[in-house]
Amino acid sequence: MMLLEQILNGLLVGSYYTLLALGLSIIFSLGGVVNLAHGAFYALGAYLTVVITEKLGFSAAFVLSPVIVGILGVIIEILCIRKLYPKDPTLTLLFTMGLAISAEQAFRLMFGASTLPFSIPEFLGGQIHIGQFIYSNYRLAILAVTTTAIAGLWLLFNKTSFGLILRAGVSDVEMVRAMGINVKPILSTVFAIGVGLAAIAGGMSASLMGVHPAMGNEIITAAFVICVLGGLGSFWGVVLAGMFVGVLKGVTALYFPPAAEGSMYALMVLVLIFKPRGLLGQKFARLE
Q1: Coil, strand, or helix at residue 233?
Q2: CA torsion 146→148→151→154, rounded to 10°?
């Protein structure tokens, strides 16, 4: 039972790792932006969830938080990042790094350096009992939300005209331009979706991981590892890597706790030795 619980906990951790990494991956794959501020959007999603829950309740916070973060992401992309697309990629790297540092300090000034208390919503409280197995309803809800978000994102990219343009642009940018399609709004939308996914992950993890200024920096490394493991440009590669890393950390924590955090880095090294592009990596072109 303990092993099963750890596997489920690993899937839980892997679920918001996956959402965070998917957002990071699509922004990089389509815009060529290494968004070091992605963790800041994750933290902002968590803080907004706490603040909005106090005023309007958790359900409203869960809906409004990613929407607000997505809108903010579009504003930043249009005013700042869009000007850097045709320039040296190092500039976007430096800009997003500065944004991440500034966001963390802003959180400290506004909310303090200590962890904000945030409880599991009452309507998602309680546990499920199957024989001797006990598991939290809230954790099951997170797994359900993650599965729905991943499925929705896949449908958007594969079953809509918007997704068709995205996939065409990644394969042949000049073809998209020749069709008279303006790619700037598409890039803004992709950025909004990416940071919105980070906000959803932040909101879901708020009551489990704690809400504090450095939470974004603590999780962004894992998101980058998952992107590399899954393969840049690969949707299912990132999903597979995210869930596998979560389960690996959960099982390792059960049998050898000191190695739990380092296990994903060891896995990344092993995968890259045999699969330099990651598990399901593919070539891509910048959409700009």
Answers
A1: coil
A2: -70
Tokens 């890039």: give the residue: 187
Q: CB pairs under 8 A, 24+ apart, for 153-162?
A: 153/22, 153/193, 153/197, 153/235, 154/235, 156/193, 157/235, 162/186, 162/189
Q: What is the CA radius of gyration of the chain?
A: 19
φ and ψ of 81, to 5 deg: -70, -35
Mean pLDDT of the chain: 84
Per-residue pLDDT reduced to its tens digit, 79-94: 999 888 888 888 888 9
**Number of C-beta neighbours around residue 2 at 10 A:** 7
Whether residue 171 has pLDDT greater than 60: no
Two tokens, residue 119: 């409880």
> According to the model, what pLDDT value does residue 132 have?
67
Residues 6+ positions from 264 with CB-CB distance below 8 Å: 222, 225, 226, 229, 245, 248, 249
Q: What are the extents of the domains in the chain?
A: 22-215
Phi, psi of 85 (to 5 degrees): -55, -50
**Whether the Cβ atoms of residue 95 and residue 84 lie closer than 8 Å to each other:** yes
The pLDDT assigned to 48 comes to: 95
Q: Give yes or no for a contact between 256 and 74, defined as CB atoms under 8 angstroms apart.
A: no
Looking at the DSSP bridge assignments, the partners of residue 133 are 130
| Alpha carbon separation from 267 to 189, 196, 242 (Å, rounded) | 33, 28, 12
pLDDT in tens, 174-183: 666 666 677 7
pLDDT above 70 coverage of the chain, percent: 90
